[in-house]
């Protein structure tokens, strides 16, 4: 039994597709097995889990997922990465793993993309801006944070396609130039309204 386990661990270690965590874990278990001729049930369960990730069926599913990768999936995946990068600490290890590119597994994709926060961000990005570049707007009285001092101020819309980093409704980012100011400020659409009069 022990010999077969050791043989399976060694065979797994030869797999060039293992990720860094899997390599480190299996190397550690292998050293422990060589030293004590045994491993715990929990360790063996994890070894089997890693082994299952590289079964012919799972490999075929992964290949089908990669073949089915599209521009739309790429857009949604990048949107999710950017959203979580701007709102730490969630999924920080996954962000580090994929910030230089690469296709996620289907499980990783579903975890990051298929939730109400990222879906709200996607809807906001794809929605038409309420205010066009060059039109006059007014900062709402309810504006908070750094925009508090601009409440009721009239401003010119400079850009309306800034990055969306909030899942709140109306979080499309604008750059506006308030009257009396020399430099534009960043503000979300929800803090703006049509200029009165």
Architecture blueprint of SSEs:
Layout (H helix, E strand, L loop, with lengths): L1 H12 L6 H17 L4 H12 L3 H12 L3 H16 L5 H7 L7 H8 L2 H11 L9 E4 L14 E9 L10 E6 L6 E4 L3 E3 L3
Antiparallel strand pairs: 1-2, 1-5, 2-3, 3-4
Helix pairs in contact: 1-2
Please characterize this protein's 3D structure:
With 197 residues, the chain is of the alpha+beta class. It folds into 3 domains: 53 residues, no CATH class; 57 residues, no CATH class; 59 residues. Helices cover 48% and strands 13% of the residues. The chain contains 8 helices and 5 strands. The protein has a 5-stranded antiparallel beta sheet, with no helix packed on it. A hairpin with a 6-residue loop joins β3 and β4. The longest helix is centred in the first third of the chain and has 17 residues. It is elongated and about 85 Å long. The termini are far apart.
Spans of at least 5 consecutive residues whose pLDDT stays below 50 are: none
What's the number of helices? 8
Helix content: 40-55%
Distance from first to last alpha carbon: 84 Å
Category by helix and strand content: alpha+beta
Mean pLDDT: 94
Number of strands: 5
* Major sheet characteristics: 5 strands, antiparallel
Feature tags:
48% helix, alpha+beta, single chain, 197 residues, elongated, 13% strand
Short description:
The chain is an alpha+beta fold and 197 residues long.
